[in-house]
Amino acid sequence: MIERAVDILIVGSGAGGATVAKELAPLCRDGVRIAVLEWGPKLRDDEFTGQELEMAGKLYFDSGGFLNTSKTLALAFVKAYGGSTVAYTGTSIAIPQQVVERHWAVPGLDWHDLMRRTEKYKAENNVHELDDSLINENNRLFRDGCARYSDGAGSRPLAVKKFPVNVRDCQGSGMCNMGCPNQAKQGTNRVQLPAAERQGVEVVTNCRVETIGEKHVIATVRYAHCGLPSPWPNGRYRISAKTIVVSCGSVNSPALLQRSALPVRLPALGRYFTCHPALTLVAQHPRPLVNYYGFPKTYYCDDFETAQHFILETCMYFPFTTAKNLAGFGAQHSAFMSDFRRLQQILVLVSDPALPDNRIAIDRDGNPVLHYDFPDMVLDAFVESQKVSARIFFAAGAERVHAPAAAKFAIERSEAGELDRLIDRRYLKLGKISITSAHHMGGCRMGADPASSVTDIWGRVHGVPWLYVADASLFPGSSSVNPYLTIMSLADRVAEGIRARGRELLAA
Predict the structure, then answer these.
(1) Verdict on whether the full-model pTM lies above 0.90
(2) pLDDT of residue 134
(3) pLDDT band at residue 106, thresholds of 50, 70 and 90?
(4) Is 139's pLDDT higher than 80?
(5) Angle, CA 93 vertex, CA 91 and CA 98 arms, to 5°
(6) Span 130-151, mean pLDDT?
(7) 4: DSSP letter
(8) Is the per-residue pLDDT at 508 higher than 60?
(9) Are the C-beta atoms of residues 255 and 360 closer than 8 Å to each other?
(10) Mean pLDDT over all residues of the chain?
(11) Which CATH architecture fits 2-57+76-126+176-270+443-506?
(12) Angle between helices 376-395 and 137-147 (to 10 degrees)
């Protein structure tokens, strides 16, 4: 086994780990040794080919299809230099005040403090609203459909908001979720990690951390058959560190801590997992649209978030992903997919509750296992959101709509007045419909009580003063919005806490 030693070791290079690395990087000037261990590769710019299946295999765990135990939910998360910031659309929304103050309600965690940090990362990562000239037809149809929305009962038009996005010189390839082939998206792979490396932080790719011991980790470096070679040779390592920060995401962070022989009992570890369960809804128009090319995610509608717990977003996914999201097979499925240019899509995200039995565990080999059951409120939200989305599609000019919770594969425009009858909870069959998630939260939740939380409000694991967590697993519950900026803001707090305890943590 190869022995290495550093002062601060960060496991994971996504929104959390890269933020901590960049914020602690100035310590390198004083001789502090900092390393980031990343399971995945660092891809060369020309390796972002835009080929859907190829990129899914290069970037995602299980090619984007990590399943829960009942095989009713698929999670998408990335192993690569930059973590999942490499392969998401760049939407960058501040967490709402009521979520932090009323739903999370963690003593000492102040929303105004998070907003101060959020503004810093919005500036660093070039977060801004997309210029109107860059908005494609798929997005405009959602906006127009919301403006003409009617449920037949005197409803008002729906309000739409623009997503702030972290892009620079976007070329409109539409490949955000497979890694931008033009490197326009300003994720941690383009901003925080290079900044940390320039100041002396070492980033070790193709390095899987297996367990954490007393101020050390056991890890294996193995070439991934793509990307740049790791700076460390292949082999098994024992890496000692005075401070360890776990930033592997809400699936792998709880699993890593459960595999490790920690000197404390943490009853909440792995529990209270939430994930914004999502459905992609598809409609067919009578004419070709500009849907695939252009930035895929420009508008959202949160009119139903408070009362019915769902948000609607514009989206446009790739042919394989779109085909997977259609509930059914055969001639009707083929008829929808026969001309991809005629399709419009809407993404439904449901804010699911943080329940103790929805959790990450590990199997006998130490691999993560997701136990997740859908609460009734999530299933009800899926049904209601499909009715709303169908009305938006028809108001935007669609001739037929595919709703997975419908009595038939396609609802025709002539049937638009029968949506309450045609879309119903009894037609929502788990396992038949493709429910996915890319917003994984919880599992190492913050709090004051070690019985119901894993870390304190600075990300320090209860009872283990040298061990921290800095990623979305810290969330006590759903963020209700894309978690990217909130992860960075919490990671910024973790880094501040480490700096404040610098002498203590760096003592031999």
Answers:
(1) yes
(2) 86
(3) very high
(4) yes
(5) 150
(6) 92
(7) E
(8) no
(9) yes
(10) 94
(11) 3-Layer(bba) Sandwich (3.50)
(12) 100
**How far apart (Å, rounded) are the C-alpha atoms in residues 172 and 314?**
15
Closest to 349 (Cα-Cα) out of 377, 391, 387, 381? 381
Residue 229 · residue 452 · CB < 8 Å:
no
- The string of pLDDT tens digits covering residues 393-415 is 999 999 999 999 999 999 999 99
| Sole residue written with tokens 């509750």 | 353
Residues 306-365 pLDDT 10s: 999 999 999 998 888 898 889 888 899 998 899 899 999 999 999 999 999 999 999 999
SS3 assignment, position 42: strand
Q: Which two tokens stand for residue 100?
A: 């932090």
**Residue 259 burial (CB count, 10 A):** 18
Instruction: Write the pLDDT tens digit of every residue in 435-462.
Output: 999 999 999 999 999 999 999 999 999 9
Phi, psi of 120 (to 5 degrees): -60, -45
Residue type for position 13: S
CA 116 to chain centre: 22
Phi, psi of 231 (to 5 degrees): -70, -15
Q: Which long-range contacts (CB under 8 A, 24 or more apart) does 215-224 make?
A: 215/240, 215/241, 215/242, 215/244, 215/466, 216/240, 216/241, 217/9, 217/11, 217/37, 217/241, 217/244, 218/1, 219/37, 224/40, 224/41
Quote the crossing angle between the two packed helices 15-24 and 484-500, to the nearest 10°. Answer: 40
Taking the C-alpha atoms of residue 276 and residue 324, their distance in angstroms, rounded to an integer, is: 19
Helix boundaries (H) for 216-260: 249-259
